[in-house]
Design a protein that fits this description.
The protein is an alpha/beta fold. It folds into two domains: 1-27 and 102-203, 3-Layer(aba) Sandwich (Rossmann fold); 33-97. The chain is 54% helix and 12% strand. The chain has nine helices and five strands. It has helices at residues 14-23, 31-38, 44-53, 66-73, 77-101, 134-144, 149-157, 162-168, 179-199; strands spanning 2-8, 28-30, 107-111, 126-131, 171-174. Strands 2-3-1-4-5 form a five-stranded parallel beta sheet, sandwiched between helices. α2 packs across α5 and α6 (134-144) crosses α7. The longest helix has 25 residues, at 77-101. The chain is globular.
Length: 203
């Protein structure tokens, strides 16, 4: 089994790449979706988050208000690191179970937005970085997520630089175009991966 991580700059289209891979029949673990489980009441991680950040981050039903939590951590680097230290072990455990459950398959993927920031390269045989220009990312965040320009730029700045991610990557997919162009890039990548599997190569 070859484990492949998908990461990249914010709003570059990592999730869209994951959706396209699923359409090609590949299993893809989504760390963002799984991290939401860590914030549900009744879990040890929920208790740790509330203890650390207080009840102001809770909605009326007692569940974590993700927007309120994000407003706290993205304005304070130390708080963001603290949140990650609570949630990431939970996510890594889930990802490893996902890999184990698909160990009979030749190619398994995991979408991990903070892969490099958290030093998770060793969990993967190969890493693909999905990226776009800063301006494209900001426009997408303002249009699709309702962010202000300042909020978009703060989110973009919270990750390691585009250049550093591209330098570290085994594969880079540039996504400044439309869905058809992105799908063409993913299709080429999939062909390369399948050829590597047929040839018995890891890289």
């Amino acid at each position: 089994m070859k484990k492949i991580g998908i990461t990249g700059t914010i709003a570059a289209g990592k999730t869209t790449v994951s959706i396209l891979l699923r359409r090609y029949g590949f299993p893809v673990f989504n760390s963002d979706q799984y991290s939401r489980l860590a914030l549900r009441s009744g879990t040890p991680t929920y208790d740790a988050v509330v203890k650390e950040f207080g009840t102001d981050i809770l909605a009326e039903d007692g569940e974590v208000d993700r927007a309120a939590l994000a407003a706290v951590v993205f304005s304070d680097e130390e708080k963001r690191k603290k949140l990650n230290s609570i949630v990431h072990p939970f996510v890594i455990e889930g990802m490893n179970r996902f890999f184990e459950n698909h160990s009979d398959l030749p190619l398994v993927f995991a979408e991990v937005p903070l892969l490099y920031e958290c030093g998770l390269e060793s969990y993967f045989d190969e890493v693909c970085v999905v990226t776009c220009t800063k301006e494209t990312a900001a426009e997408r965040m303002m249009e699709d997520r309702g962010y202000t320009r300042e909020e978009a730029e703060n989110r973009y700045a919270s990750q390691i630089s585009q250049n550093e991610q591209v330098t570290k990557a085994d594969t880079v997919i540039h996504n400044d175009g439309d869905l058809q162009e992105l799908n063409s890039e993913v299709r080429k990548w999939v062909r390369t991966l399948r050829e590597q599997v047929r040839n018995g190569c890891k890289n």
